[in-house]
Write a structure and sequence with these properties.
The complex is a heterodimer of chains A (193) and B (218).
Chain A (H helix, E strand, L loop, with lengths): L1 H14 L10 H6 L4 H28 L8 H23 L1 H7 L10 H12 L4 H29 L11 H15 L4 H5 L1
Chain B lengths: L8 H10 L14 H6 L4 H24 L9 H23 L1 H7 L10 H9 L6 H31 L1 E2 L2 E2 L14 H34 L1
Antiparallel strand pairs in B: 1-2
Classes of the chains: A mainly alpha (193), B mainly alpha (218).
């Protein structure tokens, strides 16, 4: 049982990393990865939203959705939107500086596809509440890890001379490709063991 | 962009064309990348995704622009999301019934159209301020531009990664496929290359204009 939970965590975090394997949450991945500190904090906010969403999705799936399956998508997105609204209010109250640093990307967590994908996958895989929670934590940590790595790479990249043609999104895309290549190494983690 | 301009067919045409090349959502505005990279490991998947997105974008633009005077400002984003989610659910069920194989291969990405920033962006930036006809023209142009980009990326990756296009073999059995191209890193690298190409095009245009300008003054 605990081995299964560990597997869910490592799989969501490293092997099937949401950002680098499934291409989810690319907008914040490219948008907020300019500074290491901001990137890390956005990662934490995303983990929080993911955990709440996972709990709500488990609840909805158990009690409401069996009666109206076609409402799945709409109910999930409404849950996510309200959670993000809540997080936004909390951050604004606790740390106005962080609120300004995150800017538009805070409300945009709503349209972070990683979170909706998490809710949908959780239902599809029939995870129970605990497994769903671990899945959300793993996916969130994976997203944060990718975001922080990318931010580190980009901070280094600012110091080197990049040809004018590749500057901007093109070089970030290629950097992400290299990161993704590195993460593919984790695919052998379980096949070998 | 006021609503009181006289109806002129050429204007609708301009609204329609701009999304295909000049303001292409993927190559120029870099929007909607998540589905873009995830489903383009073959040309057919790219095309199916493009069609689904076109349906959702055009229908929700039509609805949002017709309802634009009734939607209160404070809850507009939520309203748009719910309208979009309704059409995505429809597209999902239609694809499941019509082409089950492709639906299975695209998996959750059909449902993830809801959170495609391109669609929400068009509602907020265009459909909520313009008449239904203009909004539909704009949406159709953007959607075709998006489908075109998906098809480009999907076809290139399929040709390089498995040596075929739409499932037909191109180079015969001796071709050694460049497997990395249909795997996730290939998506990033390929899109990076395409964006690089567009940067290069733009810089060349600027340089030419500068040279031409100098020619006039001297």
């Amino acid at each position: 049982m605990s081995g299964n939970l560990l597997w869910i965590f490592v799989s969501a975090c490293l092997v099937n990393n949401f950002t680098l394997y499934y291409f989810l949450g690319l907008c914040p991945f490219f948008g907020v990865s300019g500074r290491l500190k901001t990137a890390f904090r956005l990662g934490l906010a995303t983990i929080f939203v993911m955990v709440i969403t996972s709990l709500c999705a488990s609840f909805l799936n158990a009690f409401i959705l069996p009666h109206a399956r076609y409402l799945q998508l709409i109910s999930f997105i409404v849950v996510i939107a309200s959670t993000v609204q809540f997080v936004e209010m909390v951050i604004k109250k606790i740390s106005p500086a962080l609120f300004r640093a995150l800017g538009i990307f805070l409300p945009l967590i709503t349209t972070n596809c990683a979170i909706l994908f998490l809710a949908l996958t959780q239902v599809k895989q029939d995870y129970n509440v605990l497994e769903g929670l671990i899945f959300a934590l793993g996916a969130g940590s994976g997203f944060t890890l990718a975001l922080v790595l990318m931010a580190g790479l980009r901070e280094e990249g600012e110091l080197s001379s990049v040809p004018a043609v590749v500057k901007g999104t093109a070089i970030n895309m290629i950097l992400a490709g290299l990161l993704s290549l590195a993460f593919m190494g984790f695919a052998g983690l379980f096949a070998a063991g | 962009m006021s609503n009181h301009k006289p109806a002129d067919p050429s204007q609708y045409y301009a609204e329609f064309v701009k999304g295909i090349w000049k303001e292409n959502p993927v190559f120029v505005q870099v929007l909607g990348m998540c589905p873009m990279l995830a489903v383009t490991n073959s040309a057919m998947n790219g095309l199916a995704m493009g069609c689904a997105t076109t349906f959702v974008l055009v229908c929700s633009s039509l609805l949002v622009s017709s309802l634009r005077t009734f939607i209160p400002k404070q809850v507009r984003i939520t309203t748009y999301i719910i309208i979009i989610a309704t059409f995505v659910t429809m597209a999902d069920y239609i694809l499941k019934a019509a082409v089950p194989d492709i639906h299975k291969e695209l998996g959750a990405f059909i449902q993830l159209i809801v959170v495609n920033c391109l669609i929400l962006g068009r509602q907020e930036a265009f459909a909520s301020r313009n008449t239904p006809v203009r909004a539909v023209c704009d949406a159709a142009g953007m959607a075709i531009g998006f489908t075109f980009a998906l098809l480009c990326l999907g076809a290139t990756r399929e040709i390089l990664g498995s040596g075929s296009i739409f499932g037909f073999s191109l180079f015969g059995p001796n071709y050694e496929p460049w497997v990395i191209m249909i795997l996730p890193p290939g998506g990033f690298l390929m899109l990076g290359m395409i964006l690089l190409f567009f940067n290069w095009l733009q810089q060349r245009k600027l340089r030419r204009r500068r040279i031409a300008g100098r020619g006039v003054t001297t």
